[in-house]
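Section 4.2 – Deliverable D4.2 (structural model, holo form)

The reporting period included a commitment to supply a predicted holo structure for the target in complex with zinc ion. Inputs used:
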Amino acid sequence: MGKVELRYQIAKEMYAEMGVDTDAILQKLAAIPISVHCWQIDDLQGFEFPDAEMSGGIAAFGDAPGKPRNREEFMVQLNRALDLIPGHTKLALHAIYLDKHGKNIARNEIGPSEFVEWVDFAKERGIGLDFNPTYFSHPDFDSSSTLTNSDEGIRRFWIEHGIACRRIGDYFGRELGEICITNHWIGDGNKDITVDKLRPRLILKDSLDQIFAEKLEHNLDSCESKVFGLGSESYVPGSHEFYTEYAAHTGKCIVCMDAGHFHPTEMIGPKFTSYLAFGDEIMLHVSRPVRWDSDHVVILDDPTREIMEEIATYDAYDKVHIGTDYFDASINRIAAMAIGARSARKALLLAMLRPIETLKQLEYEGNTTKRLALIEEMKTMPAGLVWDYFCEREGVPGREWIRDLATR
Ligand code: RNT
Ligand code: ZN
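Output (structure tokens):
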């Protein structure tokens, strides 16, 4: 028995004393998908317009060396990051990561042909794929008004982009045998006081109706809300309430909650049960807001732990779809991708290692003292040893991966 497994046996015994079956948990943990976004690797540059500036309410800050200069370098770095991420992974792509094969294809004309290589890649790596239309960073359009645009021509372009992307998602889902979630986020909104807040929402509602008109078997759509953003400080039509209402009334999509898209002290974890109570699914963007929607790399912090606890407590792994979203260009990008994805799964493991049934029982009995005492005592249990063993079983380096890290 190797060192890692030997240490795991000690941890296993300790958790068993608390009524927690670590073997069963590790088996389950390996199968729960975490959708890791591809865009940390190149600061959301993509391959559509290699020189394009990022625009439309998002920006990556930092100038760490090593940003991939082309598709080949991107793929090398992506593979290196994926090699460090244990457990069943889906890769979330954005439409701008297409391969036009030298042809001139506009964003509203893209289709499966531009993503064949990604499907091959996913099959080879044994990962799933999720998708995102890119309703921003377009050199010809002002991305502050896409699906809410009152210019019919411009709005049509973005609607067609949304339709095209759902079909690509459906292609991913069909090819890989795992449903693809196509997540729609628009940066639409206003910098300053907005008098008519209804009209853009009515236009957005109509745009979504058109985008979601076609029924697709292997694709599930989610709509990602925001409370405010860069250039949309005063008004965002695609708010949390708007998409929640849209999803509930039409049943055409689910809601995506990004941890950085709420007020600074507002946590998303406690919101999940309001959707679960109605049998609704949710998509997540696990991120780390620092004072605002700063998209810092996910770490094992309390909000992330709470997110995972809110999933584990109800065994809601098939209802709450976990995805990550961050882009920090100030540190090594491969490491950033790995740190965030590993931390998200670590948080999930910690949530699963809690004696959930016992905690619930204490709560039902009104024993709030013992409930708090048990929550606190669990925090210093040897979860790290369980994590190391999990990595080893998954064929992924444990904490020793940091030895090979570059300085920046
Ligand atoms: C932006 C949203 C959105 C993007 C990605 C790139 O505020 O969080 O999810 O980060 O689509
Ligand atoms: Zn997001």
